[in-house]
Write the structure tokens for this entry.
Amino acid sequence: MIVREARPTDIPSLLDFQLKMALETENVQLELLPLTQGTQKLFKDPTKGKYYVAEEGKEVIGCLMTTFEWSEWRCGSILWIQSVYVAAPWRKKGVFKNVSTSASNR
């Protein structure tokens, strides 16, 4: 299993995961068009954030997104990890457990 920065070719998997996550966690059915547009904008503007995917073989099995927030309290940026989703068969198997912080530098 590897964790790598997502590529535009991963967008179908990312959309699928986000749709499933919204239903599973909040019982919300997201609209595909704004979700697609929002995901594409993130790839076009890395200052908005970055997606990472977990891959087993050639199968994308999970994703997460990182974003930065300015904190005047700390006079610095805070890295947030959000939009974490792991496909059901891969849950509780430590998919993102040992991700190195260097992954965010790639």
About this structure: Residues 101-106 have pLDDT under 50 and may be disordered. Strands lie at 2-5, 50-56, 59-71, 76-86. The longest helix spans residues 11-26. Residues 86 and 92 are 9 Å apart (CA to CA).
